[in-house]
Amino acid sequence: MSNSDQQVSNGFTTTTTTTTSAAQSTRxxxxxxxxxxxxxxxxxxxxxxxxxxxxxxxxxxxxxxxxRETWSKKMDFLLSVIGYxxxxxxxxxxxxxxxxxxxxxxLLPYLLMAVFGGVPLFYMELALGQFHRSxxxxxxxxxxxxxxGIGFAIxxxxxxxxxxxxxxMAWALYYLxxxxxxxxxxxxxxxxxxTGNCKSYIWNDRNVTWSNSTTSPAQEFYTRHVLQxxxxxxxxxxxxxxxxLALCLLxxxxxxxxxxxxxxxxxxxxxxxxxxFPYLVLLVLLIRGATLPGAWRGVVFYLKPDWQKLLSTxxxxxxxxxxxxxxxxxxxxxxxxxSYNPFHNNCYKDALVTSxxxxxxxxxxxxxxxxxxxxxxxxxxxxxxxxxxxxxxxLLFIIYAEAIANMPAATFFAIIFFLMIIMLGLDSxxxxxxxxxxxxxxxxxxxxAKRREWFVFGLxxxxxxxxxxxxxxLFEEYATGPAVITxxxxxxxxxxxxxGTNRFCNxxxxxxGFYPGWFWRICWFQIIxxxxxxxxxxxxxxxxxxxxxxxxxxxxGSFPHLRCCRYPVQTCDQVH
Length: 576
Description:
By secondary structure, this protein is of the alpha+beta class. 62% of the residues lie in helices and 6% in strands. The protein has helices spanning 22-30, 74-85, 88-100, 107-132, 140-143, 149-178, 217-226, 243-260, 264-274, 277-290, 295-303, 313-327, 333-339, 347-380, 384-387, 393-405, 410-443, 452-460, 468-479, 481-512, 518-536, 551-557, 559-572, and strands spanning 2-9, 12-19, 46-51, 54-62, 543-544, 547-548. Helix 2 (74-85) packs parallel to helix 14 (347-380) and helix 14 crosses helix 16. The two termini are 33 Å apart. Residues 1-42 are annotated as: Disordered.
């Protein structure tokens, strides 16, 4: 039986053409509950979805909704996703985790976690965003409304990330501005912020010996001049505002605002510079690092396999956590970016290409970092592990900055290095705020969501206090880790158990013309959930510079995680 119905009321126009049997129509009506969502791909698109041996063609157009913008070019989308996925974590986190967990042996669990966890999750989010053409909040109206709180949790996580990611860019900008001088300020011990323990080591000076109490000019420039953490006792006493960092932060947010104020039309053009320039700098630094004395020591230390480490459970947990955080599912960005794609775009190929580029970039960054660490070990006459004891921002702003200062043409390499750090951070900031803006505009069309970055700027000012580094470390360790894993776990449960495996695979077939194979189905609906549960059981203590996170602060650090978990539960009370 064929029928065609059209309703027009209050400016809302819906046209539905259906070819099915009466019995099947009855079954469809019984199976379209609130928890299942609908198969409609989104505004202005038609979908042919297999239902009981027949096909149902649904065409929906709402005149009151704003038109959906799209990427100007396919490369705009690819570069935006690559720029988002390839961030600061690829430069400082992966090399450190790699050597800490067995060197070359770590590549085995890392690749396995990428194949069975990271890439399938990356593919799933691209497919969901492209099919439903919605942000991380509104998309749950189509999937399962009781999980709508996941979208709000994702937006909160994006704000948490903005707390410290933009602050790190402000630090890099301060370093960049300080590099425009004949002598880099972190090369001497004669400055007002230096202490008696400071010793400047020059390559051709062998009379300087290092001890546990010795500090380098780069370390004191970072901790005492830029961060000024010695003036703060911890989170309970942040001190006064560092106005030079506040001005740098304001400048960073000004760049972000004018890069995304017109949506993907402008950010898609900016990433042609911000996503490609870091690769040029990485190549230059790799070539320069390979020519330094002692570079081979760092490479051997980076890749020398310790197969015994693979018997340790934390190594596999670190591999899963690294691939999840590196590829970036659970932050709402992939959903937002994919929602601006053409409906029949091959998101399967996009997922494979961009995730492969991300993993290769992490591996390449290891060579860039460890050739320099080998050089530093040779210069200090120490072992590489004694030099590579710091991870995170300290690796960039102390160890690498000191190595650059001892190179010929130090000013040039310092300028391009800190420019690279800023651009890596900008890509992630563009993506994170675009994810929040897309979600808010989809859910609240009349809300001026593009002013939210200025709200984030106000919140970020707390990281510009003299104790702001503690705030950055707190959110880096606690706000993203367990919260993102929890969001990913709930997202997979919602899609697999409530939306349904077959329905999701039908959506992929509607867009791409082929069904996902059994490998993808097993990964989506079995393996990823187990990986998330195992990762949530891990715990890392937090120690930062002069300050140890006490028990009551560990509870406070878990608050963002618990708050993000609260939203999906609260939403259940709002669905009728």
